[in-house]
């Protein structure tokens, strides 16, 4: 339907078969879609197999229908005109007109009009005179090559897909990404805005210098004040002109567009008048005499005759020229010394094409500010006193001239090549018109400029060429005196041309700013995206006028031109880079219709742009780059979340691929080793992260460096996978890294898959960080601690380090700042030096910066602890780590009764959990029986334990026994309740069979007898000696660590490995629990089996 294109959702063509066609509705749910929403989208039988995907994958016919109705006319100038016309009238919907402009009207002529302008009329003759024909040709060649190469790159980008209105900004931002796009878009905007000021200054210069010089408000009394007076006049009139133009643009863009053709006609007529004048000068040169005093050029505003004295009625009288150099009009007056010594001669300002003056104009004549314009081959007698020369009516340089300055002033005369691509929305076939029109326009203007340089040098006298404001030819525009039929053709033509160009800059720049603002990549520009009801960018126009005013206050055309040169060159530089980058990366989407491009040409264009920037003005070049750099970093900092499939993204992918392949070649050296973390997160039932502090700790450990993969496992299928909560937690905790969520049928397999497959190539994790399963004793089943132990085993098998954080919820957040305190390292076994490295890395972060590092190591009876301390200090010195060293001596002591009982209780609990498959009806009685048995058993064993041990535990035995009994009963009750609740569903109660009363009683008595037998065996068992030794180590080590490190901010401890025999897994958890008892923040560290710290540089 015609309304389809106005809706954001996909429109589908309905089937031509209607229910009234005699086709009976079938009741099969496969054929008839019962979902009314989907039925309204697609109601046909031919493609019923695909109907469920119709909302995401439209039918080809509907897609092609949409494309046929598509127009890429944006809210540009045409719509603003239509909106203006519609105001007050009935709001009838106009059919959207398809774009109809061809190459000539749509691209060639707008480019021509934008390229030819103020510099050609006001400065080209002066550039030719100052630089000479050869150097002027070099300037033209360099700048035109730069724009031609840029046009080739631009044509490739413009023909690679549909370019909506927005032109160069759109092309660069979609090719190089939002950061570069924003930076270059704003550079282009500033360039266009300053171009507006340059055109306005050009308009005022023509008005005040050549049309109505008497309109000047500020007039100079002295000759040296003339430049300042001219600048002040420019500021006043420029501001008035800017206000007027802004009002015209604000009231209606349609007036500007209607006048565009008039302005273009002015430019073309002016150029034709110049060529006509050149041809006429070959056989009939115009009469514009120039007066020379010696070899110095005179301003002939205030005298008519180029004579010192003249005969009037046979009487010699002095002329007006005499009174300019002498103190009185009488022949005996005191005159300027140079005036006395030299004669006055008159030469033709335009000797003509065949005069041979071209030889004199081949080479340049640069000089400082105030240098007099002299004819080099003319004889003159120098005067000794030159102090008064500044007050005499000589033509002099108003600025210091040098080659690079002229490049900067000239460059704006070749800008404007984007005019065609900016109108891409209005073209019939943009992909064909933009390359042909733009390249033809550049070729035409290059020919005009080169021919102008040669013809000006061949026709006009050198002193007149170097006379910027035409003072030597009675204040005429120098290019105007060459033109035919009259200088006024050029003066009026250039005046209207500058007016039109200024208006177009003030029309184009706000729209460009509006496009950037609406893209939303520079947040502080959002306000400039709004405008009038018809979309006219009012706020953007105000800002543009404000920036324009800055250029007008500078007031000198020669000072403003290099500024806008910088911004345009920056823009062209990035257009070339975008094309080169896309070509070299071989992006699959890079398929331009324009085939005559090459990455080498684009690089040459980019280098030429960069060279021209620094040639024109190194200072302005650095400022422009700084502005672009600041915008780039700002957009990057604010996080422009735009995905435009840009080339920089492609470059990042290529660089990443190259780096990954290089990393794969060899394992990292110890010096380069850093913990590449895989953080294993557990989620609760609502998929919220259980321990967000684990991410905080990870951030503190990494300080933003190295690889971080945050992994988690969701039970279920791949369809239900979601990772948004983890990503938001990572953002909250400022963890920079990757999120990797695996969906698995159970957690065990999921974590196993993560450890095996997370990462890519050389960027794989080498360290796993996880939280201690704090509720493993209270868990309803053994899954949590079994998962934990299996993870420990798998990291060991994969030669990866393991960090286990206990009480992780008490770890500091990123906002906290820990005061004076210590990070204590208990170095019991050496497994690669990770224990030493971790505190050093943590202390790089501001949370831990004030903490001191202490290293404790354990000495046995046969070790020399004093020597150990010295060796350890030397080792740390070589490692360049600042830490206090302490060697803790552990005396050999016999296994205490407390340890023995702790082990026994642990084994009994373990055995008991295995046997707890009791029916629901038996539960309370059995628990009571267990409690009674445990009391008597513990008393009995304690008596034997006490008689066996020579040295008792450090605290009274009786207290310990009572505590242990209470703990055991508590644990047992909790565990049995939990276990039975969990297992009840699978117990005998769930078996549905036909029972007789006798059979039921027999079965119940047998179950009860078996259970009681198992329980009595349990309390007659003796603890395993290996377990007793392990428990002894855990208890003793815990005493020592708690004694020394209870107040530490963090304790790092070697993590013992799990038993090889899986039968003792639960005991292993108990050993670790005992080892860590009484400590607040603990990090258990298990090395990956390789050295991670070295003493070598």
UniProtKB/TrEMBL annotation:
Catalytic activity annotation: K(+)(in) + chloride(in) = K(+)(out) + chloride(out)
Cellular compartment(s): Cell membrane
Gene3D superfamilies, from UniProt?
Amino acid/polyamine transporter I (1.20.1740.10)
Q: Which GO terms describe its cellular component?
A: plasma membrane; synapse
* Name of the protein: Solute carrier family 12 member 7b
Q: Where is the composition biased (Basic and acidic residues)?
A: 920-936
| Organism field | Esox lucius (Northern pike)
Residue intervals of the Amino acid permease/ SLC12A domain: 107-279, 397-678
Q: Which PANTHER family match?
A: SOLUTE CARRIER FAMILY 12 MEMBER 7, SOLUTE CARRIER FAMILY 12, CATION COTRANSPORTERS
Which residue intervals make up region (Disordered)? 15-37, 915-963
Q: Which family does it belong to?
A: Belongs to the SLC12A transporter family. K/Cl co-transporter subfamily.
Chief place where the protein resides: membrane
> What biological process terms from GO does the record include?
cell volume homeostasis; chemical synaptic transmission; chloride ion homeostasis; potassium ion homeostasis; potassium ion import across plasma membrane
- Please give the start and end residues of each transmembrane region: 101-124, 136-159, 180-201, 234-253, 260-279, 399-419, 439-465, 477-503, 539-557, 563-584, 596-613
- Keywords, comma-separated and alphabetical: Cell membrane, Chloride, Glycoprotein, Ion transport, Membrane, Phosphoprotein, Potassium, Potassium transport, Symport, Transmembrane, Transmembrane helix, Transport
Q: How does it sit in the membrane?
A: Multi-pass membrane protein
Q: Which NCBIfam families match?
A: 2a30 (TIGR00930)
Upper lineage: Eukaryota, Metazoa, Chordata, Craniata, Vertebrata
What highest taxon heads this organism's lineage? Eukaryota
Q: Where is the composition biased (Polar residues)?
A: 943-952
Domain SLC12A transporter C-terminal, by residue range, is: 692-804, 815-943, 1021-1097
């Amino acid at each position: 339907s015609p309304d389809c294109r106005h809706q954001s959702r996909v429109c589908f063509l309905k089937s031509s078969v209607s229910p009234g066609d005699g086709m009976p509705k079938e009741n099969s749910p496969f054929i008839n879609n019962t979902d009314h929403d989907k039925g309204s989208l697609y109601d046909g039988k031919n493609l019923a197999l695909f109907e469920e995907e119709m909302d995401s994958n439209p039918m080809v016919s509907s897609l092609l229908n949409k494309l046929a109705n598509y127009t890429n006319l944006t809210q540009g100038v045409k719509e603003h005109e239509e909106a203006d016309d519609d105001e007050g009238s009935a709001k009838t919907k106009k059919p959207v007109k398809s774009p109809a402009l061809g190459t000539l009207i749509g691209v060639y002529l707008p480019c021509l009009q934008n390229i030819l302008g103020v510099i050609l009329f006001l400065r080209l003759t002066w550039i030719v005179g100052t630089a000479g024909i050869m150097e002027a040709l070099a300037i033209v060649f360099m700048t035109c090559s730069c724009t031609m190469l840029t046009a080739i790159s631009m044509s490739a980008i413009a023909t690679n897909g549909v370019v909506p209105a927005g032109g160069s900004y759109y092309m660069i931002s979609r090719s190089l990404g939002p950061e570069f796009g924003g930076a270059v878009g704003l550079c282009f905007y500033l360039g266009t805005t300053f171009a507006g000021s340059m055109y306005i200054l050009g308009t005022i210069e023509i008005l005040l210098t050549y049309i109505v010089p008497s309109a000047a408000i500020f007039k100079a009394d002295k000759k040296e004040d003339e430049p300042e007076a001219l600048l002040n006049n420019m500021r006043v009139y420029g501001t008035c002109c800017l206000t007027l133009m802004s009002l015209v643009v604000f009231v209606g863009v349609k007036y500007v567009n209607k006048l565009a053709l008039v302005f273009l006609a002015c430019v073309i007529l002016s150029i034709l008048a110049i060529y006509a004048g050149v041809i006429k000068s070959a056989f009939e040169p115009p009469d514009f005499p120039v007066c020379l005093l010696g070899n110095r050029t005179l301003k002939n505003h205030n005298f008519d005759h180029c004579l010192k004295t003249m005969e009037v009625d046979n009487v010699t009288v002095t002329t007006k020229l005499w009174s300019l150099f002498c103190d009185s009009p009488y022949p005996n007056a005191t005159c300027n010394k140079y005036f006395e010594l030299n004669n006055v001669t008159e030469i033709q300002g335009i000797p003509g094409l065949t005069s041979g003056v071209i030889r004199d104009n081949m080479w340049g004549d640069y000089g400082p500010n105030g240098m007099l314009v002299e004819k080099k081959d003319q004889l003159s007698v120098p005067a000794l006193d030159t102090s008064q020369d500044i007050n005499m009516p000589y033509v002099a340089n108003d600025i210091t001239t040098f080659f690079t300055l002229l490049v900067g002033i000239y460059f704006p005369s070749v800008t404007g090549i984007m005019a065609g691509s900016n109108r891409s929305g209005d073209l019939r076939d943009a992909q064909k018109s933009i390359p042909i029109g733009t390249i033809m326009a550049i070729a035409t203007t290059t020919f005009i400029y080169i021919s102008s340089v040669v013809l000006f040098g061949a026709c006009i006298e050198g002193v007149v060429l170097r006379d910027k404001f035409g003072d030597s030819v009675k204040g005429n525009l120098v290019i105007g005196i060459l033109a035919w039929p009259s200088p006024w053709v050029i003066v009026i033509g250039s005046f209207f041309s500058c007016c039109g160009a200024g208006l177009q800059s003030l029309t184009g720049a706000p729209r460009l700013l509006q496009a950037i603002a609406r893209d939303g990549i520079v947040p502080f520009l959002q306000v400039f995206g709004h405008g009038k009801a018809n979309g006219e960018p009012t706020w953007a126009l105000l800002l543009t006028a404000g920036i324009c005013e800055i250029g007008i206050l500078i007031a000198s055309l020669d000072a403003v031109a290099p500024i806008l040169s910088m911004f345009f060159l920056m823009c062209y530089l990035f257009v070339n880079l975008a094309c080169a980058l896309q070509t070299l990366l071989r992006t699959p989407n890079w398929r331009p219709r324009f085939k005559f491009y090459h990455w080498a040409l684009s690089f040459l264009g980019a280098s030429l742009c960069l060279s021209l920037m620094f040639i024109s003005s190194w200072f302005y070049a650095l400022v422009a780059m700084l502005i672009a750099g600041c915008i780039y970093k700002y957009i990057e900092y604010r996080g422009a979340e735009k995905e435009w499939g840009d080339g920089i993204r492609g470059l990042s992918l290529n660089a990443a691929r190259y780096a990954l392949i290089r990393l794969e070649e060899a394992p990292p050296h110890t010096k380069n080793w850093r913990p590449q973390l895989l953080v294993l997160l557990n989620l609760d039932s609502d998929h919220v992260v259980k321990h967000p502090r684990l991410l905080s700790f990870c951030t503190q450990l990494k300080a933003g460096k190295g690889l971080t993969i945050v992994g988690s496992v969701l039970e279920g299928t791949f369809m239900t996978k979601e990772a948004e909560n983890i990503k938001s937690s990572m953002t909250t905790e400022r963890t920079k890294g990757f999120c990797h969520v695996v969906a698995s049928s159970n957690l065990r397999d999921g974590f196993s898959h993560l450890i095996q497959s997370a990462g890519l190539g050389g960027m794989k994790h080498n360290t796993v960080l996880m939280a201690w399963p704090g509720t493993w004793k209270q868990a309803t089943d053994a899954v949590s601690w079994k998962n934990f132990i299996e993870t420990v085993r798998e990291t060991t098998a994969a030669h990866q380090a393991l960090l286990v954080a206990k009480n992780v919820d008490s770890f500091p957040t990123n906002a906290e700042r820990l005061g004076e305190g210590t990070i204590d390292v208990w170095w019991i076994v050496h497994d690669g030096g990770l224990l030493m490295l971790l505190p050093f890395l943590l202390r790089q972060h501001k949370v831990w910066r004030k903490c001191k590092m202490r290293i404790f190591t354990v000495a046995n009876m046969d070790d020399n602890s004093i020597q150990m301390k010295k060796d350890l200090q030397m080792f740390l010195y070589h490692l360049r780590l600042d830490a206090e060293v302490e060697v803790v001596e552990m005396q050999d002591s016999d296994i205490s009764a407390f340890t023995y009982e702790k082990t026994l209780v642990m084994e009994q609990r373990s055995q008991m959990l295995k046997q707890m498959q009791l029916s629901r009806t038996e539960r309370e009685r059995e628990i009571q029986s267990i409690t009674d048995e445990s009391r008597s058993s513990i008393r009995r064993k304690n008596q034997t334990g006490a008689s066996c041990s020579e040295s008792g535990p450090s605290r009274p035995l009786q207290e310990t026994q009572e505590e242990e009994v209470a703990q055991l009963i508590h644990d047992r009750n909790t565990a049995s309740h939990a276990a039975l609740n969990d297992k009840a569903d699978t117990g005998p109660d769930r078996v549905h069979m036909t029972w007789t009363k006798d059979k039921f009683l027999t079965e119940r008595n047998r179950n009860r007898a078996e259970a009681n037998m198992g329980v009595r065996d349990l309390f007659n068992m003796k603890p395993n000696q290996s377990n007793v030794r392990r428990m002894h180590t855990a208890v003793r080590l815990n005493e020592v660590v708690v004694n020394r490190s209870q107040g530490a901010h963090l304790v790092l401890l070697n993590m013992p490995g799990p038993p090889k025999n899986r039968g003792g897994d639960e005991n292993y958890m108990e050993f670790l629990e005992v080892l860590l008892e009484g400590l607040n923040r603990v990090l258990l560290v298990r090395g990956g089996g390789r050295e991670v710290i070295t003493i070598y540089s």
